[in-house]
Amino acid sequence: MDIVVNGFLFGLLLCVLIGPVFFALIQNSIEKGFWSGFFMAIGIALSDSFYIVVTYLGISQLVDNPKFNMWLGGIGGLIMLGFGIVYLAKPVPKKGLKQLHQQDTQWFQQIMKGFLLNGINPFVLFFWLGIISKVTLDFEYNTNQSISFFVVLIATVFLSDVAKSYFATKLSQIVTPRFMKIMNRVVGIALILFSLRLFNFVLVEFGVVLF
Fold this sequence. Notes:
The chain is mainly α. The protein has helices at 2-15, 20-32, 34-60, 66-89, 107-119, 122-138, 143-166, 168-174, 177-205. The longest helix has 29 residues, at 177-205.
């Protein structure tokens, strides 16, 4: 149950990340309807899954090396710390989302749009590297446990994206600059706290325990 809960909580954390993909999903749903947003959410989930598999396979071969784990913890901590600071200081757009007319849905085009929009962002890869560092070093999950964690996480994010698409019109009214600012602060603080846990792992390897 701990694995499921952690996967769900990390999924919720990713759900409130307000970035280019978030706005693209909402705007796409408003312009072209629910099913366009649904298929775009599939593309986003496929892109995240691809990054997870590639990153985890690359890291899992080296997790038995203590020196590598120290470097991984340090780099993962810096990545999460960097994202946390960025979200704390991130400005929010002054304009809201605009509702347009619906158009016909082209499912394959929308899947590719979601996959590419999420996949071409280099920060997505860095972010998953930070999450995988957390899973392998702090949670100490084995391969099967990691698979369960990421399945729950991706499922949570996907279902959230589908819900965003369904309630797109209402979300376009709810997502005000003030709301976005609060969400960015919450995400930023959470990521900084996660980074501190990874830094503590590195210090423990040196024989220093902070918490």
